[in-house]
Amino acid sequence: MAITTTTMRRTSHLLPRLRLATVPSPLRPLTATIAFARHSSSSSSSKPQQPQDFYTLFPQSIPSGPPPAGPFSIDLRALQREFFALQQRSHPDTPAHVRSADGPSSAFINRAYSTLRDPLQRAQYLLARAGVDVEDERLKLEDPALLLEVLEAQEEVEAAASEEELLPLVDRNRERIDESLRVLETAFADADLETARREAVRLRYWRNVEEAIKAWEHGKGAHVLEH
């Protein structure tokens, strides 16, 4: 659909319905973790300290570390195997001679794994780690073309009478997500934080569309993009 003045005027009152918070956001705990790590690195406390970032927990599955030294993409199967091994060593029921007394807590391991295995949360974490305030409301993407695409997708979900009618939208949205991941891969490799920030916002919109489709499929309605 071409974007005209009339079209934008017709849809402008709908824009507040969009909300990016649908996908669970780890930003507040991530920000707190990063702040804690920076404080700990400069303190002289003799107590065992948590790793400075999530990437250091998984040297086998992420040997090159975070971008730009390493790739944005991660081998998720290898990450899961290393996660299970870490959890076993940190579990309270694990024998003392196996459990690492000075290792990271189980909660920290869980948070690191859940963040790194999800591309959107991983991108948000890397941005926060680099000092980008991804919680700032002013950073939401103000792209009329993108917003119109999202609104049209929502209308398509709401108007669907069967799952078959949603299949073309599922395919288009999967392509959008894949494209966002490709852009993020390149942006982080080039340390282009502004492009990475913008694309993370786009990805968050596409994930909201994905959730709206899933909600329809499960008979829960299609209100994921609404307040």
From TrEMBL:
<keyword id="KW-0143">Chaperone</keyword>
<dbReference type="GO" id="GO:0051087">
    <property type="term" value="F:protein-folding chaperone binding"/>
</dbReference>
<dbReference type="InterPro" id="IPR009073">
    <property type="entry name" value="HscB_oligo_C"/>
</dbReference>
<dbReference type="InterPro" id="IPR036869">
    <property type="entry name" value="J_dom_sf"/>
</dbReference>
<dbReference type="InterPro" id="IPR004640">
    <property type="entry name" value="HscB"/>
</dbReference>
<dbReference type="Pfam" id="PF07743">
    <property type="entry name" value="HSCB_C"/>
</dbReference>
<dbReference type="InterPro" id="IPR036386">
    <property type="entry name" value="HscB_C_sf"/>
</dbReference>
<dbReference type="GO" id="GO:0051259">
    <property type="term" value="P:protein complex oligomerization"/>
</dbReference>
<feature type="domain" description="Co-chaperone HscB C-terminal oligomerisation">
    <location>
        <begin position="142"/>
        <end position="214"/>
    </location>
</feature>
<feature type="compositionally biased region" description="Polar residues">
    <location>
        <begin position="47"/>
        <end position="62"/>
    </location>
</feature>
<dbReference type="GO" id="GO:0005739">
    <property type="term" value="C:mitochondrion"/>
</dbReference>
<protein>
    <submittedName>
        <fullName>Fe-S protein assembly co-chaperone HscB</fullName>
    </submittedName>
</protein>
<dbReference type="GO" id="GO:0001671">
    <property type="term" value="F:ATPase activator activity"/>
</dbReference>
<feature type="region of interest" description="Disordered">
    <location>
        <begin position="38"/>
        <end position="62"/>
    </location>
</feature>
<comment type="similarity">
    <text>Belongs to the HscB family.</text>
</comment>
<dbReference type="GO" id="GO:0044571">
    <property type="term" value="P:[2Fe-2S] cluster assembly"/>
</dbReference>
